[in-house]
Specification:
Strand content: 5-15%
Mean pLDDT: 82
Number of helices: 28
Shape: elongated
Strand order of the largest sheet: 8-7-6-9-12-13-17-18
Length: 667
């Protein structure tokens, strides 16, 4: 019968059901009951202790213990220590807690003891079993206990260990706290800090506090000082500390405090900006190895820009050393730290590497690339800002054309650099002078060969080789930036006669300071001819010197490569009327240069890189407009900046010349 059959099997079905339930419970138990554990680990600092206490009152069992622990932690933060201690005493015995709860109880007891100034054995906390978040709490407890014991050596090491954990903002906060701790120490306390050979970070901190203290009180303000004197002393004091700190950064380029300077290291008046809600920038520079000096100059300019342009949005800057580090790993690290834009790298091979990696973060590369390297750049979101000789040559071509010159001669070194400069000048000249056949170029060998030629009494014949516009491929021409010029519609091609014997009206020289001195002298030697009498003898003046007939030399234009920080008065007279191109920071003789460290201000090539760092900071703030080609002109320290094809930033330089030994700006 169906009914009796059903009744006979009912106990078996019940037994099977009970077995299934038992197995499910057993599996759940072996899995570790993740619901309770996850709740215990999720502490929300935005919640008050009242919230956790309310949750505690409506829970039971293991869940109640988790809410107790969360409530205790919140009460300690709110300094409600008596109530926190009462709830700790209500906790079950340690043997009734799971391992996660046991570690939390130990930390809570340590935090309560630290705030209550009670004894606590921190060695009982199983440090190696703690999570990174718990290790942060551990070191904060230890800092308090070491401070109460006046153990300065342990306390400063606690800060150094703590800085390794947490988010970037938290690490920066620890750096600020470390600096404030060191600043509060007197001289005898600083001298008591023992540094061992395997502690480079601690050695860097100690050297930094010594550097600061040795320069902090040189210009002291007195009650008798008027407001102008006070301002001057404050500025002088700031620059003294700033230069000293920069020298320290050069020595400890990878130190945490070198990559992120403490906010008040220059004093409250020159306090560095907060990092909250600032644009996050990853700065990729060579900060070690042979290119370190270049990276340091750019980094200094980039960090100074925030003070120079306080009205601009500020930036949260993460600095990475590209020397010896794979670019893809640096990009990944920058992404993990929340960087919104990469500024750099500087070296050309690193720029090519980062282009190849196609990072998801936009990039403002600090170098120039060839036209053949632009494939796929649009998807990479990479823009380019450089101080390349090729860009300067293009700008010089525009300037010389606007000076109404028709037939320029280029004098450049006989090497790859000289050929690139000549090619770039000729490309741009072809855009400004489409009716011309090209430009002429004359190559010279090394400075030594020029000196030998000079000593032999040989001048320079102006007989350049024609570089035709037709030598360039369409991609070469497209790479040039079409600027606005005053094109002479009546310009006509040079005649065959002119091609054979051109009459140059301008000379553009790309040479070093010493090379230009020799070239200019040899141009004058070749242009000088001696005046003869009727018998063919050289006419003599009253002093017995030969009377020279000086032929006119074409107008001479020189690149910034010839301009030097140690220009002598003799050089200025020798370069009479020669026009030089250079960046506005140098041409305008900005007082900012005088405030730079000696190693920078005495080397114009480093001054230009410093200015590049300042302008890169501004371009980073305007990167969205830059990428969408919205920036027309930005008056920067390296020139008037515009954006051209392939998101390349182009520069218009300033020009100056020497007249009667004086350096004057020309237009």
């Amino acid at each position: 019968m169906p009914k009796s059959h059903s009744l006979d099997n009912q106990p078996c079905r019940s037994l099977v059901f009970l077995k299934i339930v038992f197995v499910a419970i057993l599996v759940s138990f072996l899995a570790g009951c993740p619901t309770n554990v996850s709740r215990q680990l999720s502490f929300d600092e935005t919640k008050t202790s009242q919230y956790y206490l309310s949750q505690l009152s409506s829970s039971s069992g293991n869940e109640k213990i988790d809410w107790q622990l969360l409530a205790i932690r919140s009460l300690i933060i709110e300094d409600k220590l008596t109530q926190a201690e009462q709830i700790i005493n209500q906790l079950p015995l340690t043997t009734a807690l799971n391992p996660t709860q046991q570690k939390e109880v130990m930390l809570l007891k340590g935090e309560l003891a630290a705030k209550s100034r009670l004894n606590f054995d921190l060695t009982k906390v199983p440090f190696n079993e703690l999570s990174d978040e718990q290790k942060i709490r551990y070191y904060r407890i230890k800092i308090i206990f070491d401070g109460q014991n006046n153990d300065i050596n342990s306390q400063v090491r606690d800060y150094i260990e703590l800085e390794q954990y947490g988010s970037t903002d938290l690490q920066h906060s620890t750096i600020n706290d470390t600096w404030n701790f060191l600043r509060a120490l007197d001289q005898s306390a600083i001298e008591s800090i023992l540094v061992y050979a395997n502690e480079p970070v601690l050695q860097g901190w100690v050297d930094l506090i010594y550097t600061y203290n040795n320069n902090a009180n040189v210009y002291q303000v007195t009650d008798s000082d008027d407001p102008d004197t006070v301002t001057k002393k404050q500025e002088a004091q700031f620059n003294l500390i700033k230069n000293a700190v920069n020298e320290w950064q050069l020595q400890y380029s990878n130190h945490p405090a070198a990559l992120y300077l403490p906010r008040n290291i220059y004093g409250e008046k020159y306090r560095l900006p907060d990092n909250i809600n600032n644009k996050s920038i990853a700065l990729f520079l060579p900060l070690s190895g042979s290119s370190k000096v270049f990276g340091d100059a750019i980094r200094l300019g980039y960090s100074d820009a925030a003070r120079l342009y306080p009205q601009e949005p500020q930036q949260n800057i993460y600095i990475y050393d590209t020397n010896g580090n794979a670019l893809d790993s640096l990009v990944k690290k920058a992404q993990q730290q929340g960087a919104e834009l990469i500024v750099g790298p500087l070296l050309k091979q690193d720029v090519l590497a980062i282009m190849k990696s196609s990072p998801s973060i936009p990039v403002l590369a600090l170098n120039h690339v060839d036209s053949t390297d632009f494939s796929g750049n649009e998807s990479n979101q990479i823009c380019f800002f450089s101080l390349s000789p090729e860009d300067e040559a293009k700008d010089s071509a525009n300037y010389i054309h606007n000076q109404n010159k028709k037939v320029p001669l280029l004098i450049v070194p006989k090497n790859d650099l000289g050929e690139r400069v000549a090619k770039s000048f000729a490309q741009q000249w072809g855009l400004t002078n489409p009716y011309m056949n090209g430009v002429y170029v004359q190559y010279f060998d090394s400075e030594q060969s020029l000196s030998a030629q000079m000593n032999s009494g040989k001048g320079i014949e102006l007989d350049g080789v024609l570089i035709s516009n037709t030598q360039f491929s369409p991609s070469d021409t497209e790479l040039s930036n079409s600027l606005s010029f005053n094109q002479d519609e009546n310009s006509a091609p040079l005649s065959t006669t002119n091609l054979d014997n051109p009459q140059f009206d301008a000379i553009y020289i790309y040479a070093s300071h010493n090379e230009l001195t020799l070239i200019k002298s040899m141009l004058e030697m070749k242009s000088d001819k001696m005046e003869l009498d009727e018998n063919g003898n050289i006419r003599l003046d009253n002093k017995g010197n030969g009377i020279a007939i000086v032929k006119n030399i074409p107008a001479i234009y020189a690149s910034s490569r010839s301009n030097s920080a140690d220009t002598t008065q003799d050089f200025r007279y020798d370069m009479e009327k020669v026009k030089f191109s250079d960046i506005p920071l140098i041409v305008n003789k900005s007082e900012l240069i005088d405030l730079l460290p000696n190693y920078i201000k005495n080397d114009y090539s480093l001054v230009r890189l410093y200015a590049m760092g300042v302008d890169a900071w501004q371009l980073a703030n305007h990167f969205n407009q830059l990428k969408s080609y919205q920036i027309d002109v930005l008056d920067g320290m390296t020139g008037k900046l515009s954006v051209g094809s392939h998101c390349e930033v182009t520069r218009t330089l300033l020009w100056h010349q020497y007249l009667n030994g004086e350096d004057v700006i020309v237009h």
